From TrEMBL:
Name by which UniProt lists this protein: RNA polymerase sigma-70 factor, ECF subfamily
UniProt keyword annotations, A-Z: Sigma factor, Transcription, Transcription regulation
An annotated GO BP: DNA-templated transcription initiation
Pfam families documented for this protein: Sigma70_r2 (PF04542), Sigma70_r4_2 (PF08281)
Length: 188
């Protein structure tokens, strides 16, 4: 993925102000770093991807706490490492308790911003060709694209339907749109 031209401190500042394009740029710039880190730790693509999504979800939710005295990548990796440790602890505790109860998290009300460039690219494509491109995505990305763009559900309903925190849904959707845009560009 291409690194953005905008300086990192500017992107972080814009993200702190809620700019969705800044969030998308940060996700694109650091996805491979966090995913690669988790792939080494988990040795499982699905687990690495899930933890990476959770990492960005948590980071974007807590972006206001980021201290500019530290490297952004280091901050993301620390979040990712802690999420992985928590996941291991939780799975051990569940095995010991023989209980698979999940924690319930309140769904936050989130305003949808104007369409991003990826959204515009998606809507401009021929539907039949677009469906073929979507089929090339992993199933969980296909599902989130379907729920958002074909069933036109808001983030809160998608989160409820998937049983995931709303921030995870937003990060999955950002990632799915980016991957879909790359597939479309590579085929044109």
């Amino acid at each position: 993925m291409d690194k953005t031209e905008e300086p990192l401190p500017n992107l972080i500042e814009k993200a702190k102000l809620g700019n969705q394009m800044a969030f998308s740029a940060l996700l694109n710039n650091f996805w491979n770093d966090v995913y690669g880190f988790q792939l080494i730790r988990t040795r499982n693509e699905n687990d690495a991807e899930d933890i990476t999504i959770q990492t960005f979800s948590k980071a974007f939710d807590k972006i206001q706490t980021f201290n500019e005295d530290y490297e952004f990548k280091t901050w993301l990796i620390a979040i990712s490492k802690n999420l992985h440790i928590d996941l291991i602890r939780k799975s051990k505790r569940n095995v010991l308790q023989g209980n698979q109860e999940g924690s319930s998290e309140a769904i936050k009300k989130v305003l949808d911003d104007a369409p991003s460039p990826e959204d515009s690219l998606i809507t401009e494509q021929n539907l039949a060709a677009l469906l073929e491109y979507i089929k090339r995505l992993k199933p969980h990305y296909q599902e989130v694209i379907n729920l958002r763009y074909f069933q036109e559900l808001p983030y809160a309903e998608i989160a409820e339907k998937l049983g995931e925190p709303i921030n995870n849904v937003k990060v999955k959707l950002l990632r799915a749109k980016r991957l879909l845009a790359e597939i479309i560009k590579n085929n044109n």
